[in-house]
Specification:
heterodimer; A: about 190 residues; Rna Polymerase Sigma Factor, Chain: A; B: mainly alpha
């Protein structure tokens, strides 16, 4: 079915079309969710929230972008919202802005319990360290790095999702890598 | 403490470890869960007005009509006009008693 027709049918609350939409996108949406939140249960809960939001907000979709981009935009926002909420619960949030950004890997207070079936056993520790380091980055850098390196999206796709130009996505990616190197250097240097 | 070469190796390995993450298949029941949640949400939104049955709707309509009829009768009754006239007399709002310094 043509995308315009799908959107029209969704606006008319056609459950069969919505069911088809879930079939088409659930794996991709789940892939993005588990890239941001490395816990299978949390990621599945987020997928549910994404599709409910799609169903409830389709009337607001003006068709300025592709339907897939709009769905990924909702997915990214839901994931970032989830991480933000969990992080503020874990950290003593009111002290952080007073003393500036804490630029070190938080070894103990990661926002969720690691449960990522895609981690190879021999790389489990390295993966966990990488995810913790990503969580210490500023949000814009963390989201661009996650979408590109973990979820495997192209710079153009990320630019569309984040409403940024390709060059600013590239620049964010460059800074993210540089900051991650610094963070990991500090982390491993103190390791015995 | 690690040496710098060792450190750099480890940093590189950590940054490249993302390439080894394998795809995780979504749970086969996730779609059913989403559709169930959706149906519950629709039911809940419908349940908000579930108590407002046709009998209640008819009763409400009758009450509203009766109130309107009563209000109309009160407004058009002579009693209302007399009350207004009395009010005008009491406060000298009538044309006859109006005086101005310019006349």
């Amino acid at each position: 079915m043509e995308e315009k027709k799908i959107i029209e049918q969704l606006k008319e609350r056609n459950t069969a079309v919505f069911s088809q939409l879930i079939d088409d996108y659930q794996q991709k949406v789940f892939g993005t969710c588990i890239s941001f939140v490395p816990n299978k249960e949390d990621a599945e809960d987020l997928v549910q929230e994404v599709f409910l939001e799609v169903y409830n907000s389709i009337s607001k979709f003006k068709g300025n972008s592709k339907l897939s981009t709009w769905i990924y935009k909702i997915t990214t926002n839901k994931c970032l919202e989830f991480i933000r909420k969990k992080n503020t619960k874990k950290r003593t949030g009111f002290l952080k802005p007073l003393f500036g950004e804490d630029f070190s890997i938080d070894k103990t207070n990661y926002f969720t319990e690691f449960n990522h079936p895609g981690f190879l056993l021999e790389n489990k520790e390295l993966n966990e360290t990488l995810f913790k380091a990503i969580n210490s980055l500023p949000e814009s850098q963390a989201s661009v790095f996650t979408l590109h390196k973990i979820d495997g999206k192209s710079y153009q796709e990320i630019a569309d999702i984040t409403d940024k130009s390709v060059s600013s996505v590239e620049s964010l990616m460059f800074r993210a890598k540089k900051n991650l190197q610094q963070l990991l250097y500090g982390y491993y240097k103190n390791e015995i | 403490m690690m040496k710098d070469t060792e450190l750099n190796k480890k940093i590189k390995a950590t940054l490249n470890v993302a390439d080894t993450i394998q795809e995780v298949k979504v749970s086969p029941f996730l779609k059913d869960r989403i559709l169930n949640n959706l149906n519950t949400e629709i039911d809940e939104s419908q349940n908000v007005w579930a108590w407002f049955t046709p009998k209640f709707q008819l009763a409400t309509l009758i009450v509203v009509i009766l109130l309107n009829v009563y209000a109309y009768k009160v407004l058009t009754s002579d009693n209302y006009n007399t009350t207004v006239e009395e009010f005008v007399d009491t406060y000298d709002f009538g044309d006859e008693t109006y005086t101005s310094i310019f006349n």
